[in-house]
Automatic annotation (TrEMBL):
Keywords: FAD, Flavoprotein, NAD, Nucleotide-binding. It comes from Catellatospora methionotrophica. The lineage of its organism: Bacteria, Bacillati, Actinomycetota, Actinomycetes, Micromonosporales. SUPFAM superfamilies: FAD/NAD(P)-binding domain, FAD/NAD-linked reductases, dimerisation (C-terminal) domain. This is Oxidoreductase. InterPro entries: Class-I_Pyr_Nuc-Dis_Oxidored (IPR050151), FAD/NAD-bd_sf (IPR036188), FAD/NAD-binding_dom (IPR023753), FAD/NAD-linked_Rdtase_dimer_sf (IPR016156), Pyr_nuc-diS_OxRdtase (IPR001100), Pyr_nucl-diS_OxRdtase_dimer (IPR004099). Binds 1 FAD per subunit.
Amino acid sequence: MTQAAANDADRTYDVIVVGAGPVGENVADRTSAAGLSTVIVERELLGGECSFWACEPSKALLRPVIARAEARRVPGLRQAVAGPLDVAAVLAHRDEIVNHWHDEDQVGWLDSVAVDLIRGHGRLDGPRRVTVRTPDGGTVRLTARHAVAVCTGTTTALPDTPGLDSVRPWTNREVTSADHAPERLVIVGGGVVAVEMAAAWQGLGSQVTMLVRGDAGLLSKMEPFAGELVADALREAGVDIRYGASVASVFREGREVRLTLGDGTLLAADEILYATGRSPATRDVGLDTVGLTPGDWLPVDDTGRVTAVDGGWLYAAGDVNHRALLTHQGKYQARMIGDAIGARANGEPVDDAAWGAHVSTADHTAVPQVVFTDPEVASVGLTTREADGSGRRIEVVDYDIARVAGAHQYAQGYRGQARLLVDLDRGTVAGATFVGPGVAELLHSATVAVVGEVPIDRLWHAVPAFPTISEVWLRLLETYRDRHQPRRRPPAHT
């Protein structure tokens, strides 16, 4: 791996990848594996948002909070975990998880897969061209023989609230890298980042207030019972959740943030986190030089090619194409896209049929997601709302996970819910949602069932071990069976 310097003014590669988060790294890995000379351009840390300011540090903050909550539900452990968490130790572990915000290990990985690196801000500069402004003020002009892949991800979408610029609000970056627990934290939003960070910082000693616009509840894109169970647990932990709340204006006075809500209510906090959605990080990547609008999402076909650009040379992978704003789904896309670029460059057939080797079909039908709160939420495939609008004949099957023997072993007073969506015409699982402690480990089995279109009749033969929470699969199938095959009353003894 060669790190290009400012005096490398003009260079040509088979593939240029802009953005070295997990998605860009996977595109580069697959194109290099296909024998294509590949360079990756990054202006910040290799590993991107997920490694340093999102997935990994947030889970490092959440894990001790969730582990303590689960331990308190186990008889014999409650008194052992009665005290507060060691916040300094939690933050120190978080720092180790993110390698103290250094990326040497990522650089070493690029070297191992023969991908070149240029540090600097890369911008498209016409078809198949990228210009990079390096940290020392130099300029490197790159030309791609075959493809350019934009993998720049997203940034926090901040609202146009009076006074916000002066407040220095937290985004996902500040909330996951903070060096202390603020005494009072206001969180604006009710999605995944909002609920996870509410759970983390309330558990680490902050008094958290959540301001949720509208009355759709928390996690509004998921099954309603998911947000309801999470809200119940957050309230029990001490979080103040306010629905129908909007921020009219904010200002900072000294170290204190003061908010005026839409109804005139006044609030004060030490920090305010905006978890109000994401915007594509495409405002300054040169989209205008290829006929696109800066700041827009980049719609793609199933092989990752940007549909609005002629010539089939521009690709977009991960959050930036707005298909599924999840690291694991972006990496999945990246593997398919990198292999598709390699196939096209090497004159090989492209397998672009559904579930083919070069398409990301799962983006449409089987996107798995875990929300790492207490309780956990795990889902894949359709929700009931999505199924209602899909035109498919769907039957909803619910089961209380607390009735499963494995849940009794897991925790006293277990609370959870499972939902299976059965496609009545295909006889397969179209979606699944699980809420409860420990349910994240149920998700991959559900994902395999959805992706593999495993017939319900065949799922009967996938026997869950006893006593585990996965026995809920059997109970869901029994519930479905009993609706369609009512039990017969035995004849009276004569």
